[in-house]
Amino acid sequence: MSDNDIPSVIETASEDREGAAIRAEFWLDADVTFLNHGSYGAVPRRVSAAAEIWRQRMERQPVLFFQETLAPGLRDAAGVLAPFLGVQADDLVFVENATSGANAVLRSLRLAPGDTIVGTDHGYGAVRNTARHVAAMAGAALVEAKLPFPGTDPADVVRAIDAAIDGRTRLVVVDHVTSPTALVLPVEDIARLCRRRGVPLLVDGAHAPGMLDLDIAAVGADWYVGNPHKWLFAARGCAALWASPSARGDLHPPVVSHGYGAGYLAEFDWTGTRDCSPYLAVDAALAFYRSLGPARLRARNKALAAEGARIVAGAWQTEVLTPPAMAGSMALVALPFAVEPTREAARALRTQIWHEHRIEVPVMAFGGSCHIRISAQIYNEPADYHRLAEIFRR
Ligand SMILES: Cc1ncc(COP(=O)(O)O)c(C=O)c1O
């Protein structure tokens, strides 16, 4: 199938059969209802094939590959990805995943006892842990702004973060799209706040590339990390870290290697021998994404997530917990019964749904309860949400 053969996206979600038509482009098993694009993405076959070609090139002459091909290849790949993200190629480096990019920024902080890092209670667990770790090493602390939930409003988010910042705050870290609650946070407003308060900002945009119309430079943060391997269809293990030119003097990758002290690109482009094929094949991911029509794809996925949430909440007689003003291609739906709000209970319910129904959907423990987080990607269609709706219909 060539790019031109991909059928055009149908915009009305309720009539949408696009998912079925495109499904064969992905490796996903035919009998799986896959409503969790958010956690790890799903890689199209043609992107895997492009990454495999890079791996074979690496094996044909490994020394030549690592000593001559890789460095310019990485810069070429950054040159392809950077304009899509609204940044300059020389300001963008590849890292394995969003966790690694956030680690680079957080572990490069020079904190003193009493300093604080401000995050939110909707932050991603691994990044919260990293912030806790670097704070603990320095006698500093992670302070988490409590965002109103449910019924979250963008202005309340900014107010809550503002209230958590004080004279000891050395960094604010926020998600662009929150993991446990699927909220698109007002990162431009948060960046304005941080500039006004004189505190640098790291945006964890793990879900943003491909889900949102993203222009990283326009966000106004100091650092931004995003995962092309989620909503941009890149091969897995492909994240991009952007650092504003004024915010990279002290920035080092989590793994320090030969490039130490030789500048941002030298430090991040070589962190030891590794498989860089997901980065090198990012052009194939972008080509696939573009072939679907980026603006229409984003609008279609957002509309389908909203419709899917309405279908499920309607059948379960519960509520959609994602406010339209903060919605992307995922949505949170309340369960029709109480589940203990622990990670273990959430995992047990996810496992049960998978084994009994072959529906893959994450269960999120948050705010004193457990909720279902659905997602909508090009391979989904309304029938997927109807299948989920039936399992707990009231
Ligand atoms: C907000 C957020 N940050 C970070 C991550 C971690 O991404 P990765 O596993 O690529 O590091 C996720 C994963 O879903 C996420 O939702």
TrEMBL record:
Alphabetic keyword roster: Pyridoxal phosphate
Gene3D superfamilies, A to Z: Aspartate Aminotransferase, domain 1, Type I PLP-dependent aspartate aminotransferase-like (Major domain)
Pfam families: Aminotran_5
Superkingdom: Bacteria
Domain Aminotransferase class V: 79-384
InterPro entries for the chain: Aminotrans_V_dom, PyrdxlP-dep_Trfase, PyrdxlP-dep_Trfase_major, PyrdxlP-dep_Trfase_small
SUPFAM superfamilies from the UniProt entry: PLP-dependent transferases
The protein's name: Isopenicillin-N epimerase
Native organism: Stella humosa
Record lineage: Bacteria, Pseudomonadati, Pseudomonadota, Alphaproteobacteria, Rhodospirillales
